[in-house]
Structure formats: structure tokens, C-alpha cells
Design a protein that fits this description.
4-stranded mixed sheet
Length: 284
């Protein structure tokens, strides 16, 4: 969520449970109005419950679906994995795109999001399934399992298409490295992964120096942090190291890169706020 620096620091200073409560209270008046007026449909969660992403929930999901199709080659009969399924922002538009041959699996570390998705989406679309995975993350959930050692609960070569939007932007290197290896394992040969990052390179470094609202002042070698105390708040990765030392090391290749406007690029020339990478598992 892009916020003024002082407000963001105050938000990060709160314990994870209080962050959820603060958001719920902030949006309570508009959520009550949307619910009572019928402006919010049953597949759109109240704003106060949405803990990932910003902007219009439905519009953002539809935009991502277009990218999955146009850039990644997603097809209606594909089996899709959504890592960090949140409140269903990606799942909802997929419910009208995937056909009876297609299916969707999502998992998330926030139990309230999984409950909402199972209640609102899975009951209507039985080929859509969501799981709660109790991993620790200092932005969303204290304690829990170690993401750096987590094995995805799916078989080898199970998916045609994997999606991670605003997931690796909240994970540290050992966790990202493990997830990339797991993505390679569960993708079918030739399968595609659509993933977003904050990529740190010469251009983004130069631009971000003039961006007081959204920057990464704390260097940690091959990655940078936005906040020292909440390390998973936002994480940027040195692009060259990410490509060679993490993505290629996991057995994946980068096929496309679309840089976002987060550091100060022209918004009209970018596809999204975050940087987008299209990864592929080789056929052999």
C-alpha cells in the first residue's frame, strides 16, 4: 500500500493484528455504505478486509488477468497456482475465464483471507480451492513456520501457470530462493510463472533517490529494505543477482521483464506499479 512515509512508519510500528484492525476501522464507514447500498457485489470483499494490494479490487484483478493471457499465454483449461491468494483478487476474474477443464489452487499465510475465499468463491466454484498455510511473516503474521524450508503441498509437475503478485516483495532471500525452487518443482515442463518484484538496478536506484514517498534506504547486500524493524514490509532485490543467483539457480529462465513505476518511471509507460517478470520452466 503506497502511503506517505510518516503514515507508513506509524502503520509498520503496529503489531500485525493491530494493522488489520486499523485498516478495518479506517474503511468502516465506506464499507458500511457500500454494503447497505448494494454497491459491493458478493465476490468483492470489504476494503477493510483487504490486506494486500491497493487500488480498485476488481479493476486490478481484471488487469492482471489480461496480462496473464497476453503476456503469459494463460489458457482456459490450465491448472493455476496462486501463491499468496489474499482475498481472491486474482481468483475472482479467473472464475469466469477458466473452463471446466481448468482449475485453481491458492494458499496464503493469513487465515481470514482463506476463510473468506472458501466461503465466497469455493462454494460457488468447486474447481477453486484455498488453503491456509501457517508460515511466519513479520508484516502479516507473528510466529509460524519457516518459509525458507516450506514445501508446497502439491505434486511435482502439477501446474501449467503459477502466479505471485506482491509476494516476493514481502519475503527475504532464503524464503524467495526456496519458493523459486518449489515453483520450478510444481510447474509442468514449459510452465510459466508470472511474478512481481521491486527490482533494484541503476535506473531504479537513480530514480528512487528523488522519490521521498517510496524508497529502500537500508542496504543488505543483494537486497534492500524499506523498514529496518519490519523486514518483510517491502523488499527490493538487486536485479542482476536475482536473475543469476536465484532464478536461474532454481532452474527457471526469465523470458520477459516489464519495469514498474514505483521508483518514479513514467506511469503511462509502465504496465503496473511493481516490476513484472515472466519465468518459465524449461522443457527438459
Amino acid at each position: 500500500m503506497k502511503q506517505p512515509t510518516s503514515l507508513r512508519k506509524l502503520y509498520y510500528a503496529l503489531p500485525p493484528a493491530w494493522r488489520f484492525l486499523a485498516r478495518r476501522l479506517y474503511y468502516l464507514p465506506s464499507d458500511l455504505y457500500d454494503g447497505l447500498s448494494g454497491r459491493r457485489d458478493e465476490l468483492t470483499p470489504p476494503k477493510g478486509l483487504i490486506y494486500t494490494g491497493s487500488g480498485d479490487f476488481r479493476a486490478q484483478g481484471e488487469k492482471m488477468l489480461r496480462y496473464f493471457i497476453e503476456l503469459g499465454g494463460l489458457r482456459p483449461g490450465h491448472r493455476v497456482l496462486d501463491v499468496g491468494s489474499g482475498m481472491g483478487r486474482i481468483a475472482v476474474p479467473l472464475t469466469r475465464y477458466l473452463d471446466e477443464q481448468g482449475s485453481y489452487e491458492g494458499f496464503d499465510v493469513v487465515e481470514s483471507g482463506v476463510r473468506w475465499c472458501n466461503r465466497r468463491i469455493s462454494r460457488r466454484f468447486p474447481n477453486f480451492r484455498f488453503q491456509f498455510i501457517g508460515l511466519g511473516n513479520d508484516l502479516y503474521r507473528p510466529g509460524g513456520g519457516n518459509a525458507a524450508a516450506f514445501r508446497f503441498p502439491y505434486a511435482d509437475e502439477d501446474f501449467d501457470f503459477a502466479i505471485l503478485t506482491s509476494v516476493f516483495t514481502h519475503m527475504l532471500p532464503e524464503e524467495v530462493a526456496n519458493y523459486l525452487k518449489e515453483i520450478r518443482r510444481v510447474l509442468k515442463p514449459g510452465g510459466v510463472c508470472f511474478v512481481t518484484f521491486f527490482l533494484w538496478n541503476r535506473e531504479s536506484e537513480a530514480l528512487s533517490q528523488a522519490n521521498p514517498v517510496f524508497n529502500f534506504p537500508f542496504g543488505r547486500g543483494h537486497y534492500r529494505l524499506m523498514d529496518e524493524n519490519v523486514q518483510s514490509a517491502n523488499v527490493a532485490y538487486e536485479e542482476a543477482y536475482l536473475r543469476a543467483g536465484m532464478i536461474e539457480a532454481a532452474g527457471l529462465s526469465v523470458e520477459q521483464a516489464h519495469y514498474g513505476y514505483w521508483p518514479g518511471r513514467d506511469k503511462e509507460a509502465c504496465r503496473d506499479f511493481q516490476d513484472i517478470l515472466l519465468l518459465r520452466r524449461p522443457l527438459s
